[in-house]
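Record 1 of the preview.
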Amino acid sequence: MTLGNYPDLSFAGARIEAREKRTMLDKQRDPLLERRAAVERQRAAIVAHKARGTFRELAEDWYDTEIEGQRLKHPQVPRWHLDNYLLPEFGDRVPADAARLLAKVSKRAPTAANYLPANHADTSRRARRSKRGRRAVSGA
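->
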């Protein structure tokens, strides 16, 4: 079982931690299994938090990574659609409710509705990825 690397963990700290792990073994508890269980609980908590995330969080994450970093001719257009159509209606809801917005916007503003499915599809992919835990903290 690895306790840590030298610059990050001093020899004195390693001795103390090794003594704690040995005490756990004496009490019939496997420190490696407990560490793995703790990491798995942390991953599950992150995935659960992302699954409960709001549409606003997903949309802002999408905008920050996909729009602001690109050299678009008119980057304000997706921002305008987010601010005027998507976020007011679905900002605090879960992403699954966004399909209803597309139908609602297509009646009110058909031109704007042409842009929304592509943006919504990317946001939905992000939501599905985060639910599957692909973006969870790595490590074992």
